[in-house]
Structure formats: C-alpha cells, structure tokens
Amino acid sequence: MKIIRFLLILLALSFFLGTSAHAFLIDFETGFSDQQSVGNVGTAVNNLIFFVDTAPPTSSTPFNHAFIAKVGTPVTAFVPLDTPALTTSGDFYLTDESNGPTIGLNYFIFFEIPVFSLGLDLYDFRGDGGAPIGATATLNVFSDINWSVTVGMDSFTVPTLQPVEGNVARLSVSSPSATIRTASVTFSHPDIGTGIDNIEWATAPPAVPEPSTLLLLGSGLVGLVGFGRRKFSK
C-alpha cells in the first residue's frame, strides 16, 4: 500500500508540474476608497489602465476613468440585501460612474504587458436594470492596443426580467488565439449601475509537460501496472 501511495503522489506531482500557471488578481480591496477615480493600477508584474465609455478610447478622445464603489448604503454600491454579489465583491469593486449611475457605459482595460488569459466578475447586468431578456454582456480580448484585433470572447445573456439583485456573471477567456493586450466588456443594451471585479490574468500559457515530466509519468504508470500484476500472481 505504501508503494501505491508513493506512486500516486508521484503522478499527482508530475501532473501539477505540467499544468501550473502564473495567475494574478486585482480585487480592489486594498488601497482604494469609495468613489475614487481609477485609471492606472500597478501590480508587481503588470500595469493595467481602466476606462469607461461608449467606445474604445483613442488619442483624440478623453480617457474617462472608472470609479470605485463601496458596498453598503448610502453610497454607490450594493445594499445589504443584495446577494450573492455582496459576498463576492468584498468591500469594493469597479463601476462606470461616481455618485450614482445615470447612464450605462462599457468597460475597457489596457495591459502594459500582454497576458495569456483573462477572467472577471460582472455585477448587476439584469432585466430589471433596463436590459431585456436576451440582452448580452460580452468580454472581448484583443491582441493590439486599439481594441480592434479580437483573439477571444465570452458572453452572458440576461435570462429573465425578474429582479435578480446583485447577480454575478463570470466572464473569462482562457485560450485566446494570441496574447491579450486590451480587453472590453460591452453591453448590447445599456444597464446603469453595473460593475466589474476580481480581475484575474495569467502571465504565461498553460504549461505543456516536458519530456522529463512525461517520462516520470510513464514510469509511474508502468510501476503501478507491474506492482498490480505481482500482487495478483501471489
């Protein structure tokens, strides 16, 4: 039994070495305050810039930064009865307008260093906010700095007009056709008061097992088969 346990641990370790990735997260929980204007957000591995507008920012148009909303009332975020976003968002998340929403805007993200995947939580895109059944929110990722060359997408569709307070939709692109330099969250119908949070990305593609890892995996399998045969013959 000890040999079997050892070989199983060996197999699990070889699988982990072959599939581990370098993932990073921005959740806006540290160093932010309610209604704070947010443009550049620096991390140890990358710098991100956030914009909100009806169309991607250009050098000839103003860069409209996003804003932080704090959970609770009387501020710009979820009230205590909103679930599950109240627990998912923590204390802060990113929204499109300060001092309460009046119109619905799209979100745009710029990465200083290209990344290999992107995921984020979308809050409060729902039927009772102005979006009809069938309205979509789409995460598009692009390989260029002009938000024009699409290399992956994911979307959420409003399923019902019934109020779903604080609803959460996870949008993610894990295998883009090229590295991601920019991204957008756009809406087929405007919905005031949306938010995005828990922005996660990878700095390297999913690793493919190296020959040495594959050899280790094969040796473990052969050992398991051989041990089983000897035990059966006894």
Describe this structure in words.
- The protein has 234 residues and is an alpha+beta fold.
- It has 2 domains: 1-20 and 209-234, no CATH class; 21-206, Jelly Rolls (Sandwich).
- 19% of the residues lie in helices and 34% in strands.
- It has helices spanning 2-19, 85-88, 211-233; strands spanning 23-26, 37-38, 40-42, 47-53, 66-70, 92-95, 106-115, 117-123, 136-142, 150-157, 168-173, 180-187, 195-202.
- The strands form 2 sheets. Strands 1, 2, 5, 6, 8, 11 and 13 form a 7-stranded antiparallel beta sheet that branches.
- The chain is globular.
- Any idea of the CATH topology of the largest domain? Jelly Rolls
CATH class of the largest domain: Mainly Beta
Whole-number radius of gyration? 23 Å
Structural class: alpha+beta
Oligomeric nature of the chains:
single chain
Shape: globular
Distance between the termini: 15 Å
In the residues, how many domains can be counted? 2
Strand content: 25-35%
Helix content: 10-25%
Largest sheet: 7 strands, antiparallel
Number of helices: 3
**Second rung of CATH, namely the architecture of the largest domain:** Sandwich
Mean pLDDT, nearest integer? 80
